[in-house]
Specification:
The protein is an alpha/beta fold and about 400 residues long. The protein folds into two domains: about 5-180, Flavin prenyltransferase-like (Rossmann fold), CATH 3.40.50.1950; about 185-400, Rossmann fold, CATH 3.40.50.10300. Helices cover about 35% and strands about 25% of the residues. It has helices spanning about 20-25, 40-45, 45-55, 70-80, 90-95, 105-110, 125, 130-140, 165-180, 210-225, 250-265, 305-310, 330-340, 380-400; strands at about 5-10, 30-35, 80-85, 115-120, 145, 150, 160, 185-190, 195-200, 205, 225-230, 245-250, 270, 280, 300, 315-325, 345-350, 360, 365, 370-375, 380. It binds flavin mononucleotide (FMN).
């Protein structure tokens, strides 16, 4: 059966351009089903899209009297891509906060396919901090936007907010569709979060890693169709994908055991966890009392998991993270060589607005073949997308010139 595109249409004057989007997908042999908001139904009759697609249009959540099927869930199972064009400020706000009070926004929560949103609205609505915040929130969940252009708006004003060109919207939709299976068949192991090294039953050493970068990587890998295993230190984040395996660990030694247990089955390993380099030489069975003035502790080295993985690398792709506070690029390049990595991703953790704990990051990426670049500040999910685009490039190059 041909893949099904679900096109969401909300109440912007530009909704007439959605007809061209329907046609463009149909020309490429996709099935198109349309959901309209009730307000869009006040601007134009659903019959237009019904005639164009040859199918009923979904608009009223409670219209279906069938007892066997619940339309929005049924439709979510069939969807390969959910494209909303035009998306009003209202729809974007509802998606960002999980409001599900009509068919379109309810479908958004029920769908697990890739989502692409093409906003259209007056410039003031578009540039309103609330709209921008809602968009940033959705972006951090991996949702793609086809940004509006500048020009004459429906009210006659000039400004930002015009719906992007239908061809551009279709192109991003097709890209999202192909990305959703670009890593199908690949087994990816991601590590995330800090470790905890106990001094006694009460106290431990840890670090400032929140796990957000590793969780975003695992989420992005799953969204590209990969089979993901996540080894996670103690964090307070929800499991970022459905299916797949999550192994929770606490100490560097547990992280090491889990990684070596699971690494043989992985095609790609991304070490984003901040594993302790040192642990207390001994862990006291009872709480250390504050008897003396000072307390001396001896710390001992933990295993360098990444270096060990580099030694046993074979044909696997190995990606390491470097958290640096100085000489970022030099230290990252040195790590790439010393640990036999395919790629290193370095971030300057001394910056307050990126790195540890933050929702965004700005990273320096260096590849074994000499390519290197610095990203802008973006959400950790967007950084993950940049990283996986590079990984897919490495896979492609390996395919074309396999190791001797
Ligand atoms: C003629 C007309 C044009 C409108 N165009 C837009 C628009 O382009 N973008 C937008 O965000 N809202 C627009 N609005 C306002 C929305 O229709 C309004 O916020 C509505 O509540 C959104 O409903 P919906 O998101 O369920 O479709 C327009 C309203 C009218 C009456």
């Amino acid at each position: 059966m041909n893949e099904t595109i679900i096109l969401g249409v909300s109440s912007s004057i530009s909704l007439y351009k959605a007809c061209e989007i329907v046609r463009a997908f149909q020309k490429r042999e996709f099935q198109v089903r349309v959901i309209m908001t009730p307000n869009a139904g006040k601007l134009i009759s659903p019959r237009l899209f019904q005639a164009l697609t040859g199918h009923e249009v979904f608009l009223d959540l409670f219209a279906d009297s069938s007892v066997e099927r619940i339309a929005h869930i049924d439709l979510a199972r069939q969807a390969s891509l959910f494209l909303v064009a035009p998306a009003t400020a209202n729809v974007i706000g509802k998606f960002a906060s999980g409001v599900a009070d009509e068919f379109l926004s309810t479908f958004f929560l029920a769908a697990s396919c890739p989502v692409v949103i093409a906003p259209a609205m007056h410039e003031n609505m578009y540039l309103h901090p609330q709209t921008q915040e809602n968009m940033a929130r959705l972006r951090s969940r991996g949702i793609r936007f086809v940004l509006p252009g500048k020009g004459q708006l429906a009210c006659g004003d000039e400004g930002w907010g015009r719906l992007a060109q239908p061809e551009a919207i279709v192109a991003v939709g097709l890209e999202a569709l192909s990305r959703s299976t670009s890593l199908t068949g690949k087994r990816i192991l991601v590590t995330a979060g800090p470790t905890r090294e106990s001094v006694d039953p009460v106290r431990y050493f840890t670090n400032r890693s929140s796990g957000k970068m590793g969780y975003a990587l695992a989420e992005e890998a799953a969204s590209r169709g990969a089979e993901v295993t996540l080894v996670s230190g103690p964090v307070s984040l929800p499991v970022p994908f459905r299916g797949g395996l999550v192994r929770n660990v606490e100490t560097a030694a547990e992280m090491e055991a889990a990684v070596f247990d699971l690494s043989a089955k992985a095609d790609i390993i991304i070490m984003a966890a901040a594993v302790a380099d040192f642990r207390p030489a001994r862990t006291e069975a009872n709480k250390i009392k504050k008897a003396g003035a000072d307390l001396e502790l001896t710390l001992t080295r933990t295993t360098d998991i990444l270096a060990e993985l580099g030694r046993r690398k074979s044909s696997r792709i190995l990606v390491g993270f470097a958290a640096e506070t100085e000489a970022l690029e030099d230290n990252a390049r040195a790590k790439l060589q010393d640990k036999n990595l395919d790629m290193v991703v370095a971030n300057d953790v001394s910056q307050p607005d990126t790195g540890f704990g933050s929702d965004s990051n700005r990273v320096f990426v260096a590849l074994r073949d000499g390519k290197s670049f610095q990203t802008e500040k973006m959400s950790k999910r967007e950084v993950s997308s940049v990283i996986f685009n590079e990984i897919e490039g490495i896979i492609e190059r390996k395919k074309n010139s396999p190791d001797p």
